[in-house]
Amino acid sequence: xxxxxxxxxxGSIKDTSGFMDCSNGINPFGISGRVLNSLKNFDxxxxxxxxxxxLNLKNIIMxxxxxxxxxxxxxxxxGDGSIELIYKINKLFVDNQSLVLGYSPQFSDYVDDVxxxxxxxxxxxxxxxxxxxxxxxxxxxxxxxxxxxxxxxxPNNPTGQVIDVEDLEKIVTKAxxxxxxxxxxxxxxxxxxxxxxxxxxxxxxxxxxxIRSLSKGIGLAGIRAGYIVxxxxxxxxxxxxxxxxxxxxxxxxxxxxxxxxxxxxxxxxEKIILxxxxxxxxxxxxxxxETSESVPIMTLKHPDNxxxxxxxxxxxxxxxxxxxxxxxxxxxxxxLMINPDIDRxxxxxxxxxxxxx
Length: 357
What we know:
By secondary structure, the protein is α/β, with parallel strands linked by helices. The chain contains 11 helices and 13 strands. The chain has helices at about 35-40, 55-65, 80-95, 110-115, 135-140, 165-175, 230-240, 250-260, 260-280, 310-315, 340-355; strands at about 20, 75-80, 100-105, 120-125, 150-155, 180-185, 210-215, 225-230, 285-290, 295-300, 320, 320, 335. The mean pLDDT is about 95.
């Protein structure tokens, strides 16, 4: 199979150093000062030993979720980024001819990994007539016992839209009737209120797996860290195919500081709401698909199906992610991350709109 990941360098332009980078799915405001101070205080002697049991980090994670759900350390699994966690979960549940139901467009690397494990990925494709808004009822209509696994990213990548937690509960309930697991990939979950997270549902179900990344809102993409919150039963099965040293010592140290700095995330979300709203209001010809105001990514659509929107934005020195690898979209769509230099971004996108006939 051909791996279709969008997470690769664009080699068509030799020097993009001066370009506005709206392609990465990260926190546009960087990392918190608390994390920087924590890095200065890291004990370098830990580099010469294997990571100790991560009870302190797990306690911080449990404290973080205490107002939403009471979770136990045995329900938490650490990993080297959410994508590594996804790979191992699929190793548990997906094999030759396993049928996995998701919705599209969503995280294309997940689709690739299902297929790499011999599975078959089936899509509920979001409808353009509904501005690609997720309809949970239509998704549930497609669920049946023939599926081995159900996968939903929430917030959605690439649109940035959010599924209500009440709808997630209905989906997980139906999957439980079939005795099938549900993965809720919350890589962008730090950009929405905690009460909207599926972590609030974990203790109601034995079949729910919630993946959290420290690469997006937390701002630690470079250290590759993430964690799972799930039932004790699934966590125990996961540990059988894992190793005791996942998440390195530096990542654990920085994660402790980052997760506790809730004021940083609150401030970032407030800024995103302001600049994303300003950007959307400034558009006249490009369409923004269904999206949440606090999530920094969104999908833009050019009205001409034959137009390479990523290229047009590159001509304006704006880097984005082409959506041609996302099921249900095409080259006239891009995933765009909002940028703090919002006036420059608006000016460049408006020059693209000036070319629309």
